[in-house]
Please model this.
Amino acid sequence: MLSPALLFVAAVAADDPVERIAVQGQYRSLYVNEAPTSVSVLTSDAIGQRHGTHMEDVLNVVPNLNFSSGSSRARFLQIRGIGERSQFVDPINPSVGILIDGINYSGLGQAAQLFDISQVEVYRGPQSGRFGADGMAGMLILESTKARDKFDGFWQLGAANYGAVEGGFAAGGELGALGRARLSVYQQADDGFTENTYLQRDDTQSRSERIARFNLWTDIADHWQLRSTAHLYRQDNGYDAFSLDNTRQTLSDEPGEDDATMKAARMALTYSGAETHETVFSYSVLSADTLYSYDEDWSYVGIAPGWEYSSTDAYWRERLDHTLEARWLSTQPIDLMGLSTDWVIGWYHLSRAENLRREFMNWDTYADDMFNSDYESKRHALYGEITQYLSDQWQLTTGLRLERYRNVYQDSNTVGVKLRDTMLGGRVSLSYSPAFGQMAYLTWSRGYKTGGVNAEALGKATDNPELEDFLLQRSSFAPEYLTSLEAGYKYINVDDTLSLNVALFAQNRDDVQLKSWINRAQTFIGYIENAAGGKVYGLETELNVALTPKVWWFANVGLLNTKIEGFVTEDGIDMEGRDQAHAPGYQVNTGINWQVTENLSATVQVDSKDSFYFSDSHNSQSESYNLLHASLQWQVDAWRITLWGRNLTDEDYATRGFYFGNDPRDEYQPTTYVQWGEPRRVGITFNYAM
Model:
């Protein structure tokens, strides 16, 4: 039964009627109500209503989109209950991808900063036919604000509780022969939301993050256009989130770090001189250096009688991606089997190298366990899609992607593994548009992600032959496949005062990659294995309606029912029929936008989320919760002043959870430990338009 808070009617500010939003995640630009798939779009206005500075601030707006912490930022995402939740020794294969200005940041969700982002598109369901192996469960696409012909921009300054300050500017316009350019620079910092009572500090979870994005659109010759993009991201964050007492008061004597330096660039060259098609060549490079460390015992020497143990765990990763793509896209339909047909064909290559240095340090014995690994992944893909216009009202879209991967792994434990396989994905969509603003569709799609290696399991030496054989049998795991059948309906009325998007879906998972843990012979090891399968069913609804010319009500609802099939944990727990991890049964975001006066608008909204399991290897769960957010915006000439608040009732809610024994005071009784989400935040922001 849904929480009573879901019936709360809130207030949200909107100057304009329902906006017809174009999405860029399809091969061709389409309006949201024309795309035959379940996609949500967050505009800059919607982001601003929650003062969203990072994707984790606005994720609860989107139906059936969840996230996990376990770090200072929400790095990993789950769509319809599918997605990774953490990364330690082993390389990961993302189920949910992230593109920022066309650059692949999959697995690096901390980079999803929202300053000067014009919109965020969230595609749910298999997207491998369009985006490849990183889009098996869905894809997030972030696009920077485009430069205009005339100069424009803005300054932004703000402050909030927990010592938060922010500042940034964005500006762009015509640069003569160079074309149109836009530069965005932003810095934010806060003290974090924990108090380390042992060290008497309130900044061990502090955050300091800064970004710079530059985009340039150049007409270099007749019919030749070049888009050049450069990104720089720097994160210097503390990490001290878990408490033995399950509070926001920690006891760590060696707090960790969550740092990142990312540099990325992309060039996309478009030739539009051919009569029947345009050609796009693109190349991007991404370099990401990260450090993730934590106090492994969450405590200090002497916390319990005779307790002399202290240790830290640290992971330095260097990742380098090179991506090449060539695409040919029809600009006028051809005749195929008597039907007018648009087409796309393309070739894609990704080279990804990831180097890990792990250092586990026991500070009592000064035992230093060093580990190094190198992981190289190369992918090649051929893809194509045709859209056939069966009549003025009916369209049939058929797409196919063939992708070959080669993953090579080696480490300091003399483990070396080479994996190769070929994967096939795509979609078939039949859509019907009976009238302007209406569309019904039925889409079958298939997604995939690559197989991988269990590096930690392979590298553990043991004198137990049975355990050694057990680990060797799990040295690697196969690709996973996701098949989906989705039926949807989209409607927007002629006077733009009502919009409705509804999607019903059923998904089947094959060779599901699930995380397991083994604790034998004083050996605690995490590894991934392929379960037999899984089922996912659900509903997604987004509604915007004008109650009066100045008051708008919105509701975004996700319902989810998931099942694990053919999976027994190492502890002998049969998970058959249990819900998948991080798959809440419902997610609701609802509110009302109110234009109070010509210059004053208000927003109030509520997020409600059902409880969910933290892991597929144990049965600990979060609690359901309701969060209240509000903002008040005052516009005076070029100035905009925003008072905002998130989680105004200061509700405690968990974003990550583990189940094990870690407290010497209770002799290591297994306990559910959680990382808490953001507490009450209130602040003020000043914007000045140039």
